Amino acid sequence: MIEQIDKQYVLQTYARNYVNFKKGVNATLFDENEKDYIDFTSGIAVVSVGHGNKRVADAIYNQVSNITHISNLYAIEPQALLAKKIAELSNMELGVFFSNSGAEANEGAIKIARKYGETNFENKRYKIITLTHSFHGRTITTVKATGQESMHTPNFAPYPDGFSYNHSIEDVYNAIDNETAAVMIELVQGEGGVQPLDKEEVQKLAKFLKEKEILLIVDEVQTGAFRTGEFLASNVYEIQPDIITMAKGLGGGVPIGAILTTHKDILTFGDHGSTFGGNFLSTRAALEVLDILEETKDSGALDETIIYFQNKLSQIYKNHTNLFTKEVGLGLMRGLRVKDADTLTQIINESFDEGVLVLKAGKHTLRLLPPLTISKEEINEGFKRLENALSKIK
Ligand SMILES: Cc1ncc(COP(=O)(O)O)c(C=O)c1O
To answer: Is residue 338 helix, strand or coil?
Structure first.
């Protein structure tokens, strides 16, 4: 039923699985036949506080029963409070602009870098350097910022100028010239294969860029909001980027993006805006999400969950060295490199049949992004099902 309607009326841009989920409780989903699935995906790092979270539901209900939206022409209390909370949690002196998605946050970050490069130097600095295998979004600019040639199809050309890609941080130094405005990186490449960058190399790059007055943009759309164990991966890497972007886990499923910058004066009146960005609904939801995640972190529960999850995953890895070649990741953003792409497809399909949802990243990485509030019982059950699925792979 859902399949037929979807295929008739929804533009077919996704390779969809036609399971019809009806209910979720933390990391467990139930379909229309009441079959349960352990969710090791959180809707691709979004449902950070689990499905059906009562506190978030109540916060949203209370908010929208009064005001959902009034536009950015008026002060929005939860928006201001959320910006304050983000600044405090990040431990940085920064200002925040709210958007509706990760790509939009990255677009805004690129605008800030371009204006910085236009107004601060004798010659115009407009170039932005990114890494190969990166992913920065699907708008015409962020797709061009994404370091995957397959995404730059001629279908959508021409693209904005000024983007180049490098295989490693070492290569970034060689690519910099006097027109470079910014370097944009993910500290753990998510879509590219759950690949963390080396901490010392990142710190060295951050220092170098500061000296050269080139901005460092860190795309934390996937790594932000405690996914890697701290509020930001930048906190784990102990760096202070000029611009950080967030989205995904920040709203727990309510669309929200954020640009965080220590350069509070670059964007001025009229430079940027959004109809929906930072409205009462999304910022109230995100405030509650951050309260929950902060409590989870402060109580020690998040760190415990990360260790527990990682140990279970390592066990799976050791049990199946015929299928996996490497363990990768940070915090609750974890992956196992699979020997080839076909085997990975089989693993994802068998896992689904066994009742555990897992993801693909890059060409051959099995990616696991559970809710940060997942329980030990759900972890045990999920790995039991994953083990069953793996035992069926030849
Ligand atoms: C690192 C990173 N940046 C940007 C995006 C794009 O975010 P959105 O899909 O919310 O536009 C994603 C989405 O997967 C991402 O992982």
So the answer is: strand
**β-bridge pairing 243-246 and 257-261:** antiparallel
Q: Which residue has the tokens 């990975």?
A: 344
CA-based torsion, 302, 295, 244, 280: positive or negative: positive
Determine the Cα–Cα distance for residues 51 and 29; give it in Å rounded to an integer: 8
CB of residue 186 inside a 6 A radius of ligand 1? yes
Question: Helix or strand or coil: residue 219?
Answer: strand
Among 135, 139, 218, 244, which is best to mutate for testing ligand 1, by the most ligand atoms less than 8 A from CB? 135
253-273 confidence digits (pLDDT tens): 999 999 999 999 999 999 999
CA–CA gap between residue 287 and residue 129 (Å, rounded)? 33
* pLDDT tens-place string over residues 358-372: 999 999 999 999 999
Residues 203/237, Cβ–Cβ less than 8 Å:
yes
Contact yes or no for 282/251 (Cβ under 8 A): yes
Q: Which domains does the chain have, with CATH numbers?
A: 1-39 (no CATH), 56-298 (3.40.640.10)
The protein residue whose alpha carbon is closest to atom 4 in ligand 1 is: 136
**Centre of ligand 1 from the C-alpha of residue 142, in Å:** 9
Say which DSSP state 249 is in.
Answer: G
Model confidence pTM above 0.85: yes
